[in-house]
């Protein structure tokens, strides 16, 4: 199947494979300026079909275990449907607030946060996982069942980044009842809702995530989430070059 | 918190927000030419620290529920460690092959496939999920517990795309026992392995996914995975523009 046996790396092979400076910048720009949008949707401005098509096609080109492509995308504009989803959000939000009964300060901060843009975004997309797709034997899913739903998450991240490049904001509403979603959208029992997304043009992509700006939590140092060779080993002679580079990055708070 | 109340969209606001043509191309190029690499790793060629740092930092800038950043990245070069992981793969592969006992033709096709590059890649990365990070109350994870691990999957997809832009291939080995991984890497009981990745420069990024080229499964038409307003509704008057665009794309097999 291989077209070539030469051992030069793709970076050395040139245009077909390598990324130009601006192309590489484009990918990193999408990754670093992507935001979970709740408050900044522009009202009454549709996403054109060609942009939406590119966004969905990007999602569809995610990796999937055994090439099973186990995703579906339910596109929702209908106001009545959204209203019912919003009501599910309100109920779940109330439940969350009650969980913070013993931490009044946190409870008040939580209650002040804007956490969804269901009604004011241009459209909503429910992304689902169908474990029966091309099954029952799905190559690569025989040892770790969850890899099926992991594939759907990769598709969601592709969608999110493509939307960013199109100037479209995405907000993931996770404060919802999946049972409500199944009922409202007629999702069959064997299919699992994975994400409920709100999409639309935005007034701005904030410089930092909303929860970081609001002081809810800080961004962790990259050094804190890297281990070398084994869990918990956060320094290593053998990896000293990377350790130093990671520390410099953390110090510069990039 | 908002810096501006003007309603022009980001696409209309210019350089700070908008993507240039090549920047946009770069993102889509990464998405469409990313491959799950098993056979094409260049041996004995390290990934430079600065490239690896960019790849890991891209992963760390994924979205996460409640900004909980619940991921860790265990970087592995040690040959003994990899050998033990490879043995876990071999055992799980044998188990998979036995599952196809009643479909000899499929079983033989499966047995011929190259499904991992654990030993020949430049390094391995085990990506894990820590549900206790910034817990126990994680904003947005109170209704759907799984959103924690979904965040880790978004980080994996960022890593994968950044690697592609750097000319680095990534292969996700899912035919493994998580119990083996936990033991080999010393992962504590409360932390869950999510992905075991092999990274390295490659001889080529294949034009199509390995499993598509091998005729294991076809890529689905995009039209087949989109529904309008409700599950199962694959046509819609109200969405006719997008329906037509999706059909054209599917016909052109892009």
TrEMBL record, chains A, B:
<dbReference type="Pfam" id="PF00881">
    <property type="entry name" value="Nitroreductase"/>
</dbReference>
<dbReference type="InterPro" id="IPR029479">
    <property type="entry name" value="Nitroreductase"/>
</dbReference>
<keyword id="KW-0560">Oxidoreductase</keyword>
<dbReference type="InterPro" id="IPR012825">
    <property type="entry name" value="BluB"/>
</dbReference>
<keyword id="KW-0288">FMN</keyword>
<protein>
    <submittedName>
        <fullName>Cob(II)yrinic acid a,c-diamide reductase</fullName>
        <ecNumber>1.16.8.1</ecNumber>
    </submittedName>
</protein>
<feature type="domain" description="Nitroreductase">
    <location>
        <begin position="32"/>
        <end position="201"/>
    </location>
</feature>
<dbReference type="InterPro" id="IPR000415">
    <property type="entry name" value="Nitroreductase-like"/>
</dbReference>
<keyword id="KW-0520">NAD</keyword>
<dbReference type="GO" id="GO:0000166">
    <property type="term" value="F:nucleotide binding"/>
</dbReference>
<keyword id="KW-0521">NADP</keyword>
<keyword id="KW-0285">Flavoprotein</keyword>
<keyword id="KW-0547">Nucleotide-binding</keyword>
<dbReference type="InterPro" id="IPR050627">
    <property type="entry name" value="Nitroreductase/BluB"/>
</dbReference>
<dbReference type="GO" id="GO:0016491">
    <property type="term" value="F:oxidoreductase activity"/>
</dbReference>
């Amino acid at each position: 199947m291989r077209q070539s046996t030469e051992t030069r790396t793709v970076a050395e092979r040139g245009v077909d494979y390598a990324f130009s400076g601006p192309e590489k910048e484009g990918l990193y720009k999408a990754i670093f300026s992507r935001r979970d949008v709740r408050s900044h949707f522009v009202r009454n401005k549709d996403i054109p079909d060609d942009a939406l098509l590119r966004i969905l096609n990007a999602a569809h080109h995610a990796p999937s275990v055994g090439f099973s492509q186990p995703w579906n995308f339910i596109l929702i504009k209908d106001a009545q449907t959204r209203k019912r989803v919003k009501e599910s959000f309100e109920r779940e939000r109330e439940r969350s607030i009650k969980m913070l009964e013993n931490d009044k300060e946190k409870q008040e901060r939580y209650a002040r946060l804007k956490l969804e843009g269901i009604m004011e975004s241009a459209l909503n997309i429910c992304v689902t996982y169908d474990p029966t797709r091309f099954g029952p034997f799905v190559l690569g899913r025989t040892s770790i069942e969850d890899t099926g739903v992991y594939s759907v998450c990769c598709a969601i991240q592709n969608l999110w980044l493509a939307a960013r490049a199109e100037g479209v904001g995405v907000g993931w509403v996770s404060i919802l009842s999946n049972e409500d979603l199944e009922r409202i959208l007629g999702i069959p029992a064997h299919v699992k809702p994975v994400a409920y997304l709100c999409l639309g043009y935005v007034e701005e992509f904030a410089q930092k995530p909303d929860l970081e700006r609001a002081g809810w939590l800080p961004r962790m140092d990259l050094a804190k989430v890297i281990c070398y060779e084994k869990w918990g080993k956060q320094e290593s002679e053998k990896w000293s070059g990377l350790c130093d580079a990671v520390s410099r990055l953390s110090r510069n708070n990039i």
